[in-house]
Amino acid sequence: MILALPVAWCIARVSPAWRSRLLLLVIVPFWTNFLIRVFAWNQILHSEGPLAKFFRSIHLLGENESLLFNSGAVVLVSVYTYLPFAILPLYSAAEKFDFSLLDAARDLGAGAFRSFRSVFIPGIRKGIVTAVVIVFVPMLGSYVIPDLVGGTDGQMIGNKIAQRNFADRNLPAASAMSAVLTLFVLAPMLFRRKENETS
To answer: Which CATH code of 3.40.980.10, 1.10.3720.10, 3.30.450.20, 3.30.70.3270 fits the domain covering 4-198?
Structure first.
């Protein structure tokens, strides 16, 4: 949300010509298969990859340190993968927002940040809820990203369920973890439904 909100704001505020170009940049990653994108990040973050070599050249990364197979790599690739899913619903809500309300708030003495926080964010609440649900639900059960770039230090619950099921053959534990995951998935969906009924 921290990254998606400013991007959606900027896209909604620019001219229609620039808006189309910026939206195209947001949509471009969807043209490539999900697995290919994750494998590409695996190569980029590899110990012999371009990023690792660059950071070693400026002495920000040790010879035995790696950018891959840790929780930071999982966060980075997850943000890259799911950011467009957050930007699009936020942009859709921001496009319908009356930006003259921000001018009115500033005329009444509110600063830029306070106008953004107290007027703009509540005004696109539906878009925020939609973005949270769209990103939260698939990310919660994410399996491929932690498996390919996280290793043992960046596993998520999807990897734990697979390990209990296939490696340990502990089906009761896998079932219990799956039930907990299902509850976490249903909670935001029920909240979104309640929001729609209220509005």
So the answer is: 1.10.3720.10
Residues 6+ apart with CB under 8 A from 81: 29, 34, 37, 38, 145
Tens of pLDDT, residues 68-113 = 999 999 999 999 999 999 999 999 999 999 999 998 998 888 888 8
CA distance 90 to 94: 6
User: Which position has the token pair 């600063």?
Assistant: 111
Q: What is the pLDDT of residues 136-171, one digit of tens each?
A: 888 887 889 999 998 888 888 888 998 898 889 999
Q: Token match 């990859």: residue?
A: 49
Beta strands in the chain (DSSP E): none
Rounded-to-integer distance, Cα 132 and Cα 136, Å: 6
Contacts of 163 (CB under 8 A, 6+ apart): 155
* Cβ neighbours of 95 (radius 10 Å): 14
Which single residue is written with the structure tokens 């900027």? 10
Three-state DSSP at 141 gives: coil
- Torsion-angle region of 59 (φ positive above 0: left; ψ -120 to 50: alpha; else: beta): left
2 pLDDT above the threshold of 90: no
